[in-house]
Amino acid sequence: MIERSVELSSAAATQKLAARLAASITSGVVYLVGDLGAGKTTLTRFWLESLGVSSRIKSPTYTLVEEYQVNSTSVYHLDLYRLETGEDYLDLGLDDLPDSALMIIEWPDKASGYTPKPDLVIEIGFTPAAGEEGRIIGFTGPKADSIGLAEL
What domains can be seen in the chain, in order of their start residue? Predict the structure, then answer.
């Protein structure tokens, strides 16, 4: 069930959304849900840049996890698409993260029952009415109301 949503028409609009996310969601567990090519990794890259990550931001498609330091906070970007079983998530060793950490998980359904409960679920879908770059972004979870969508 989507609690809030916004329609984006361009990569610039996605970047603006990512800046809003960076300003309001700096810790907790975030699930990114959407089809291949929907823009999960792009949103995450913009989000990490807005948090202040200046190093190269790599897709965790093959490494499964990329860790970034933002001031004294650790940010973990996970792509679980390649997991063969949900139990494979346990091998990543991410069960005891500090409360101040931010974990952004693409394809959380691949490890359903093993990943931590999300504070925010972001669903990304295509919206052809807005052109090739058009996306509809839905937000659910306890932190969904903390994102300033009115500014977009």
Answer: 12-120 (3.40.50.300)
